[in-house]
Design brief:
single chain; 330 residues; alpha+beta; Tetrahydropterin Synthase, Chain A; 8 strands; 51% helix
Length: 330
């Protein structure tokens, strides 16, 4: 039966050893048969030797994959860390105590109902990526390094949650990952195991607390929106005051602005605008045209003279000459 990481049972027969054993059994059987047929004891002894060799090959010829290491003990003492590839052991005398996988592996762990620094119960799920860098220490210093890694990771996670605020856990997971990696790696280094990285996958809080946090966040966003709206209104008011000062200094600019507003409004199709005649007179189109002509020819703009209005003439109708009456004759 093939063993895996942490499997301390001996492995079964590998394909190469099985093939060599079959060949040895076949040659031994042929030699033994030839010895019986020819009556020569030499072939019998050769056949017996080949049969014994066929039995010993699977027990002595072992093979480790590229990522595996075999811990070989001789009379209970460490003989060698064998692998990768083919290697020999002495049957009965040597024993393979464990097979170690040196690839990067993962272990999931969690902390249920762990209290944060601000006494909030949270459930945290995480995963650790680790690798055996010293097979000898991993096999001799600890009984079950897989279980030990899981326990150390869970304990370190609870310690980290207990020393951190909930807001820190939720907003800065990368810092928590680095802290867990440092704490777990410091403890597992004594067993020949390296912690490459730790990743927090999920942090869950009670439903009631989630609702409270959601309402708090909503209130904060509404307050921030109102503050931004007030600041925008203030900036708009400042701009309006500046524009009013400019318009007060230059009535022509105000008239141009009014005409621009009318133009922007009439760009929509089908729009009908009713403008009082007093407003048209106030815009003074003729004066604006004259002002534009003067401004195009001269750098210094001069104010346009107001158009003259015809004075009302009081025509006195001519008086008829009065005839003097002659006195009547007596």
């Amino acid at each position: 039966m093939n063993g895996f990481v942490g499997d301390f049972r001996p492995r079964g027969i590998n394909a190469t050893a099985a093939l060599l054993a079959v060949i040895a059994f076949a040659l031994g059987a042929l030699s033994f048969a030839k010895g019986i047929t020819d009556g020569e004891p030499v072939f019998l002894w050769i056949g017996v030797g080949l049969l014994v060799l066929g039995v010993l090959i699977p027990a002595s010829l072992k093979m480790a994959n590229q990522w595996e290491r075999a811990v070989v003990l001789r009379f209970g003492k460490l003989q060698q860390i064998a692998g990768p590839g083919m290697f020999l052991i002495v049957p009965v005398i040597d024993q393979i105590s464990s097979w170690l996988d040196q690839r990067i592996q993962t272990t999931e762990f969690n902390a249920e109902q762990a209290l944060s620094k601000d006494t909030v119960p949270v459930d945290v799920d995480a995963v650790i990526f680790w690798q055996i860098h010293d097979p000898e220490r991993a096999a001799l210093e600890i009984t079950d390094y897989r279980s030990a890694i899981a326990r150390v990771a869970q304990t370190s996670l609870r310690e980290m949650v207990g020393s951190s605020l909930l807001s820190t856990l939720l907003s800065d997971r990368q810092k928590g990952d680095e802290l867990l990696k440092e704490q777990i790696g410091r403890k597992t280094a004594e067993w020949g195991v390296t912690a490459h990285s730790v990743e927090i996958r999920d942090i869950s809080v009670p439903a009631a607390l989630q609702d409270a946090m959601s309402r708090e966040a909503q209130a904060q966003r509404e307050a921030a929106a109102r503050i931004h709206l007030g600041q925008a209104e203030q900036e708009v008011a400042v701009k309006f005051v500046e524009a009013a000062e400019i318009y007060a200094r230059s009535p022509a600019a105000l008239q141009l602005r009014a005409m621009n507003i009318i133009y922007e409004t009439t760009k929509e199709r089908g729009a009908t605008i009713l403008i009082p005649s007093a407003m048209v007179d106030a815009m003074n189109p003729g004066g604006l045209l004259a002002l534009a002509g003067v401004g195009a020819s001269q750098d210094n703009r001069r104010p346009a003279a107001a158009p003259r209005t015809p004075a009302a003439s009081s025509a006195v109708p001519p008086t008829r000459p009065q005839r003097r009456r002659r006195p009547a004759a007596d």
